[in-house]
Structure formats: structure tokens, C-alpha cells
């Protein structure tokens, strides 16, 4: 069932918003790339033009040259590693205690105009299904300024830190509390550690947790969660996303919920009790 879904079945496809996009998507999305309508945000206008001109395996793809935050002008801190660029200043007294501190050394600044996620014209008509955000410390504030999209999203992926690696950073706790209050629940967590800047840093059996990659899914079954509009297409996307993330037990719980609402039929529901139905 799930492996045979088409763009038409999904009311145009899976609408995927990637904030702070860099590199390719995780391989787990490859089996459904042809169903994805991808919108990526990167403040580099020249890079967006280049990426928009490249061929793509997605159903559709658009790169938008915006820095996403609160709609105000901010300083962009250009660090030694482009992957550590942030609108927040690196917290060097803290980072200097760790072996990867050189990646965060500021080599220049630039004033940039930011845009609220809910105000971006390119995504106003879109009913968003997936949000991925990697903002180097601003995940919660970006999502707060995109609550319309958060309330539509079935799946949100973020990379918050456990400590203030940037001055005033939104930590994991901040992000998790915000998303729980919007009806999303933590489903997966990949942990990242860093060695301290001393002779035992690289050989220490355990190093300090520094940041993570978390996945939150909307708890559509919870009676306190009001998720509208809940259509057959949105239900099928939710099941497909559970298959992509290997959240099969939640997927089956959703299937029972959707079946009760008449969004999937008896045969579809019966097939979803078998693990092979979830293989893409």
C-alpha cells in the first residue's frame, strides 16, 4: 500500500520545508524523493540561484535566499566553519574548553535582514508536512515565528544544543517544551559529544553531550490535539512518514485512528498490521 502511493494520492506530495539547508537530505528520504515538494532556505542568494538551476529528483524544488528568524536585522557571525555560522555569537569562553573550538572562531560579521517563517510568500499557500531546522541556536525562536506551519506539520526535525554553545542559544529543553505545548512528541534522538581540550579528551570513554538531532511527531491521537484539516491525503502522508522514520507501532496506532474516521478502508487497515506493508 504505502510503497505504491503517488503524488495524486498525497494531494500533490509531501511538502518539506528545510531551514538552514546544507548538503543532501538524510538517506531515509531517498525512497520517497519523487513525492517531495522541497523548499530550502539559505541566506546566500548566489548559492540559491545555483541550486535552483541544478537537476533534482524531487517532485518540485525551490531554494529561497532568506535568513529565517524574527523579521528584524541581525549580525551574522561568520565562523571558521561555514556550518557554524549563526545569528548568535559563539560562546567562546565555554567553547574554548573543547577540542572543536577552532570551528567557532569568528572571522567576520555581516548585517542580514531576517524573515519570519509565517510571512514568507513562497510557502504561504502550502500546507506543510515536514519541517527540518538547523539554525545554530535559534530553533525555538524560528519555530515560534512559524506557528502556522508548526501546527500543520506531521514531522519536525531540529538540532538544538544541550548547553549555550552560542550566547543566548535555544537549548534542547526550550525546543522540546515548545513543541510539546503545540501537540508534538519526541520520537527519536541522535546524540553528539565533544572531547575536551586536554590530553585525555580524545581517549576519554565518555565525553560531554553537546547537541542532538531530534525528531518530533504530531500526536494526532491525543484528545487534546486539534489538527485540522485531517484529510485522507494528510492521513496517508502521516503513515508514509512513520514508515520513513521506522515508527511502525505509532504508524499502526494512527492507522486505527484513521480507520475509525473513515480515512482508510478496511483492506488498507488490515494490510497495515503486517510489517511488509511498511517497507518502502
TrEMBL record:
The protein's name: Methyltransferase FkbM domain-containing protein
Lineage: Bacteria, Pseudomonadati, Thermodesulfobacteriota, Desulfovibrionia, Desulfovibrionales
Pfam families: Methyltransf_21 (PF05050)
InterPro entries: FkbM_Methyltransferase, FkbM_mtfrase, SAM-dependent_MTases_sf
Residues annotated as domain Methyltransferase FkbM: 37-185
Species this protein is from: Pseudodesulfovibrio nedwellii
Amino acid at each position: 500500500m504505502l510503497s505504491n502511493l503517488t503524488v495524486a494520492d498525497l494531494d500533490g506530495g509531501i511538502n518539506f520545508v528545510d531551514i538552514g539547508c546544507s548538503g543532501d537530505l538524510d538517506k531515509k528520504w531517498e525512497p520517497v524523493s519523487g513525492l517531495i515538494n522541497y523548499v530550502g532556505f539559505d541566506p546566500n542568494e548566489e548559492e540559491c540561484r545555483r541550486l535552483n538551476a541544478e537537476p533534482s529528483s524531487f517532485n518540485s524544488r525551490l531554494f529561497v535566499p532568506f535568513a529565517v528568524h524574527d523579521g528584524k536585522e541581525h549580525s551574522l557571525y561568520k565562523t571558521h566553519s561555514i556550518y557554524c555560522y549563526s545569528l548568535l555569537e559563539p560562546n567562546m569562553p565555554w567553547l574554548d574548553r573543547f577540542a572543536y573550538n577552532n570551528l567557532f572562531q569568528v572571522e567576520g560579521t555581516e548585517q542580514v535582514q531576517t524573515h519570519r517563517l509565517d510571512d514568507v510568500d513562497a510557502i504561504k499557500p502550502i500546507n506543510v508536512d515536514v519541517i527540518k531546522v538547523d539554525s545554530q541556536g535559534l530553533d525555538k525562536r524560528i519555530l515560534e515565528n512559524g506557528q502556522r506551519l508548526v501546527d500543520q506539520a506531521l514531522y519536525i526535525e531540529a538540532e538544538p544544543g544541550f548547553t549555550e554553545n552560542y550566547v543566548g542559544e535555544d537549548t534542547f529543553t526550550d525546543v522540546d517544551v515548545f513543541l510539546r505545548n503545540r501537540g508534538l512528541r519526541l520520537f527519536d534522538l541522535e546524540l553528539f559529544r565533544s572531547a575536551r581540550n586536554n590530553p585525555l579528551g580524545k581517549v576519554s570513554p565518555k565525553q560531554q553531550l553537546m547537541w542532538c538531532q531530534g525528531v518530533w511527531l504530531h500526536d494526532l491521537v491525543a484528545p487534546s490535539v486539534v489538527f485540522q484539516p485531517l484529510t485522507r491525503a494528510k492521513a496517508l502522508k502521516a503513515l508514509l512518514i512513520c514508515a520513513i522514520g521506522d515508527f511502525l507501532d505509532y504508524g499502526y496506532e494512527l492507522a486505527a485512528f484513521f480507520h475509525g474516521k473513515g480515512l482508510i478502508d478496511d483492506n488498507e487497515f488490515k494490510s497495515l498490521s503486517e510489517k511488509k506493508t511498511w517497507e518502502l
